[in-house]
Amino acid sequence: MHRFLGLLGLFKEYLVLTFLIVISLVLLSLNDNNQVRAIRSTAVGFVGFMQNALAIIPNVVELKKENEVLRQLNVNLSNEVSLLREARLENLRMREMAGLKEHSTFKLTAGNVIGKSLLLLRNTITLDIGERDGIKADMPVISETGLVGKVIATSDHYSIAQLMQNKDFRASAKIQRTRVDGIIAWGGGDVLRLKNVSKTEDVRPGDIVITSEYSSVFPREIKIGLVSKIEEKPGSLFKEVEVTPSVDFASLEQVFVVTSAPDPERTEIEKKAARTK
Question: Which long-range contacts (CB under 8 A, 24 or more apart) does 224-233 make?
Fold first, then answer.
């Protein structure tokens, strides 16, 4: 009891002030004077204004949270659109390749390109198929748009293919329109060259170049590209025939390996003839 009275004595000024404020507020609320009404209206307006101002703070926090949720949703939707677009493109590519496989007269094994080397003189690609899939060296590699190259190395599960854009690549070829024969080789950059074409032969820009039956490695009538430029050098017996390949090597993703073995009798007799020269 003494402690309570001591506390009252210690805070008596605050208690008196609080009591007087309460009495004043009661009197103001009971007073119907015009001046009191104006004060009361102003006080109510001020309190309402402060409530609205303070209500903005939690709204800002909520808006930030909602904005983060919407941004995350936008990222997820963008990823889904990208995946759907990629699936559509892959479906179109596979349908084109399936059409090639249905119409081809030789056995094909599909493979994915998992590595590329397109900056050197010996340009190659790495495939995810190998000896266990029946892949061997010298087997031709093609795509739905034409000739790609040939296999030069294999392991159990992988293989490396030499592209036409390789300084060591050679293939027997001919002009589809006039049946003019030649040897296709890399001309540097993005172009090929059809070599050993006589100046007297009929070759025009836009002619289609295909593989010929003179090759023991590549099947005949596989599209190689289009003649893009022809030059005749003074003193030379041959034309300079530039060919644009039909295959876009930079965007190559899926290919077929021709797993049909060449005629062993023909291969053997051609090797014997080469040794006797």
Answer: 224/146, 224/147, 224/164, 224/171, 224/173, 224/184, 224/192, 225/146, 225/192, 227/175, 227/194, 227/203, 228/191, 229/205, 230/203, 230/204, 230/205, 232/199
**Cα distance between residue 89 and residue 77, in whole Å:** 18
Q: Is the Cβ–Cβ distance between 247 and 145 less than 8 Å? A: yes
> How far from the centroid of its chain's Cα atoms is residue 202's Cα?
41
Mean residue pLDDT across the chain: 80
* Pairwise CA distance, residues 220 & 223, whole Å: 9
- 219: which 2 tokens? 């099947």
User: What is the pLDDT, as a whole number, of residue 205?
Assistant: 95
What is the per-residue pLDDT across 194-237, written as a single tens digit (0 to 9) for each? 999 999 999 999 999 999 988 888 988 899 999 999 998 888 89
Domain map of the chain by residue range? 108-261
Q: Which fold has domain 108-261?
A: Thrombin, subunit H (2.40.10)
Q: Is the pLDDT assigned to residue 272 strictly greater than 60?
A: yes
